[in-house]
C-alpha cells in the first residue's frame, strides 16, 4: 500500500504487529494516511483498532514493524515523531478535578506550547468553551467534555490527530457539531485524522477513506461511499457486518 511520496504522507505504517503471548492482536498491517485526509479505522470489537492507535501513540511497543510520522521513525526518534501528534477518546477523559483552563494549561506545558496563554484563549473561543473556563471538567456533560478533549488535542497543532470513537455517547446534534469541527480542522491545514468509529453513517459523512480491520488484518480499503457496491453490498453497515461475520469468506472473494 505505501503509495505516494513522503511529502504527502503524514503517517506511514509498515508490517505492524503486536502479539500477546500466543494471541496476535495486530497482524502485520501496512497503510498510509495522507495530508488533509480523514481515514476511518473500522472493524468489529477486538479487531485491533485500539491496539493500533496505542502503538501509533507510542503507548504500546510493537512486536515488529515500523511507524513513521511526518517521515520520522517513531521507534528511533520518539519525541520528534510524537511532537506533532495528538489524541482524543471518550475513555480517556481529562482530570476531572481541574478546570477547563487548568487542564489546557497543564497539557500545554507538557507539550511545550509557545505563547500558551494566547493559544488557550483561541481554543476556548474556537471550541465554544469560554463560559466553562473555570468549571471543573468532571462536572461537564459528555459533549462539553469532548469539546475540551478536542481543544486539548489541538494545543500542539498536531499534524496527525488520532480519534478513538470521539462521538460515542454524544446526542446527534452534538455529534454533528464535533464532526463539523474535525472536518474543518483537516480541511484547513496540513493535518490528517485517523478516526475509529462504529457509526457507519458518521464514517460515510466524514471519512475520505476507510480501512476495515478484522482479526488484526486490513481486509478492505477504499472510499466509504463506493466500497459497499464494489463488494456487492447495499450499504457500509451491510459490508461491516459481512467483514465482522465472514472475514475469511471476504478474503477468499478478494483473492485473484
Ligand atoms: N493487554 C492485552 N493482553 C492480551 N490481549 C490483549 C491485550 N490488549 C488487547 N488484547 C486483545 O487484542 C485484541 C485486539 O484488541 P483491541 O482493543 O485492539 O480491539 P478493538 O478493535 O479496539 O476493539 P473494540 O472495538 O472493542 O474497542 C483483542 O482480542 C483483545 O482481547
Features:
nodulation; alpha/beta; ABC_transporter-like_ATP-bd; 37% helix; binds adenosine-5'-triphosphate; 256 residues; disordered N terminus; 10 strands; six-stranded mixed sheet; ATP binding; four-stranded antiparallel sheet
Write down how many β-strands occur, each being a DSSP E stretch of 2 or more residues: 10
Give unreliable regions as ranges. 1-5
β-strand percent reads: 25-35%
Helix share of residues?
A: 25-40%
Distinct ligands: adenosine-5'-triphosphate
Largest sheet: 6 strands, mixed
What's the tally of helices? Answer: 10
Q: Strands of the biggest beta sheet: in what spatial order?
A: 6-7-8-3-9-10
Rg from alpha-carbon coordinates: 18 Å
* Mean pLDDT reading: 90
Shape annotation = globular
First CA to last CA: what distance? 17 Å
Structural class: alpha/beta
Detail the topology: elements first, then pairings.
Elements: E1 9-20, E2 23-34, E3 38-42, H1 49-56, E4 64-69, E5 72-73, H2 78-82, E6 85-89, H3 100-111, H4 116-126, H5 142-154, E7 160-164, H6 172-188, E8 192-196, H7 200-206, E9 209-214, E10 217-222, H8 227-230, H9 236-245, H10 247-254
Parallel strand pairs: 3-8, 3-9, 6-7, 7-8
Antiparallel strand pairs: 1-2, 1-4, 4-5, 9-10
The structure holds adenosine-5'-triphosphate.
The site of adenosine-5'-triphosphate (ATP) has 11 residues, from β2 and α1.
Domain ABC transporter: 11-240
InterPro entries: AAA+_ATPase, ABC_transporter-like_ATP-bd, ABC_transporter-like_CS, ABC_transporter_ATP-binding, P-loop_NTPase
GO molecular function: ATP binding
